[in-house]
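Handout, section B. The chain below has 236 residues.
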Amino acid sequence: MHLFYQPDISLNYLPEQESLHAVKVLRLQLCDEIIVLDGTGGYHRAKITLVHPKKCGFEILESTFHFGEKPYSLHVAIAPTKNIDRLEWFIEKAVEIGIDEITLLRCQFSERKNVNFERLQKIIIAAAKQSVRAYFPQLNPICNFEEFIRQNDLRSESQTRLIAHCYPEEKQILKSAIADQKHILILIGPEGDFSKEEVALAKEHGFTPVSLGSARLRTETAGVMVCATAAVVLGS
């Protein structure tokens, strides 16, 4: 069954881009059944009541709430990669595996300072529909590393706060650090890693260094590994 996204389910019609896809590409007809996701856990079985390329109407037949809800929340704060395709790949796979919040970090060694936010949002929607995820992650704009660290002090009591870096020091293994935790925030640095000053600042604010294994991973690979590890260790 075809899946569509409508964040305001009370409108009973699909947004223009989704309507165009339903009518012109898929050639759906009156009374054809579809699935409508609202991005906040709602999974709605519906039928088409109006075939229109700009406002395709539907009637809800059955609704399921909290569809696919995970027993944990994962927030990955990651530096955008120099090659934008790699960042887009990370976001796509992170959504498919399961992630709740993504923050883009501007770090000392970052090689990319800006991104096309609208395009990344479209990738999130497409990946969520592809993997039938009714919860869409929140994507935050690029934030300076120091500002992000200080802002998240307000949430520290409810979070397990981790930083992955490549400098030699004693670190926890990721799967041990997240075991039995409910709310996880992890920092992933740019291709040149975090600076030593950034690592020290994070540790001062309660972030625990973690190891992702013996291999040196690309930024986007590290991000995907974090999502997959959380899904295996904490998922139901």
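Note. The radius of gyration is 20 Å. Compare this with the example in section A.
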